[in-house]
Write a structure and sequence with these properties.
Length: 242
């Protein structure tokens, strides 16, 4: 058991084989050794909930996004904050690292791109009309963004132009996952499967519920956590069936 945070834990990522980093509503990040449960470092600097975190492919850098409207780039080895990313005008909900770039999404409806090494703002991707709920990179380096406006957008990160924009759901897009050449999204109106290269619709699966909280592919199985009234269910489909 990893004990130390004083409020809800909102994010957890693996750094290396035996270390993980966690983010909390207590405004801190913590780096842990999972073999003995010891906290190695406490990363302080945010002034509000740390909502999301990501780690680079080497486990050397951590990016955190906070309700204080900033993102921070941390050195995992020392725990030092290397850069504070300022520009969003409201709470940050999503952060993502792709190569030498950081992507953030916030309640101000914007997606912003930053340099991982420099902290420089490289651009703003606009077009959503509500909170950015999900960010995902597909195999060829393009960015998928989803929002509470029900829209899904595919962006070219090189020229920062939108490739397509879809009015995909009637409600907020809460869950998103990709596999093969497909993306799967979940909202209160159900789960949709599409080709992510052009956004073309394949089919809907499952039944509408109050919310689809998470979707994950595990081997050949697609798993979704769905809220229906006062109950929550975990539903399964074989990938080849969707």
């Amino acid at each position: 058991m990893l004990e130390g945070h004083t409020n809800t834990v909102r994010g957890l990522k693996a750094l290396r084989t035996e270390t993980v980093v966690s983010a909390s509503r207590d405004r801190t990040l913590r780096i842990w050794n999972i073999s003995d449960g010891k906290c190695l470092r406490v990363l302080e600097g945010h002034t509000d909930t740390v909502r999301d975190i990501d780690v680079d492919s080497n486990g050397a850098k951590i990016v955190s996004g906070s309700f204080d409207g900033t993102a921070r780039i941390w050195d995992a080895a020392s725990g030092e904050c290397r850069h504070v990313l300022r520009g969003h005008t409201s709470q940050i909900y999503r952060v993502l690292i792709h190569g030498s770039k950081v992507v953030t999404g916030a309640l101000d409806n914007d997606v912003r791109v930053w340099g991982l090494d420099t902290g420089t703002n490289l651009g703003i991707l606009r077009g959503h009309a509500s909170l950015i709920t999900q960010l995902s990179i597909i195999d060829d380096g393009k960015l998928i963004s989803a929002a509470a406006d029900g829209k899904i957008k595919l962006w070219n990160l090189d020229n920062q132009e939108a490739i397509y924009s879809l009015d995909a759901h009637d409600g907020s897009v809460i869950a998103l996952t990709t596999y093969s050449s497909r993306m799967v999204t979940g909202s209160s109106d159900g789960i949709q499967v599409r080709h992510f290269d052009d956004g073309s619709f394949i089919e809907s699966i499952g039944k509408p519920g109050d919310a689809v909280w998470a979707i994950k592919r595990i081997g050949e199985i697609l798993v979704a956590a769905v809220a229906r009234g006062r109950s929550s269910t975990v539903e399964f489909w074989k990938v080849e069936e969707v």
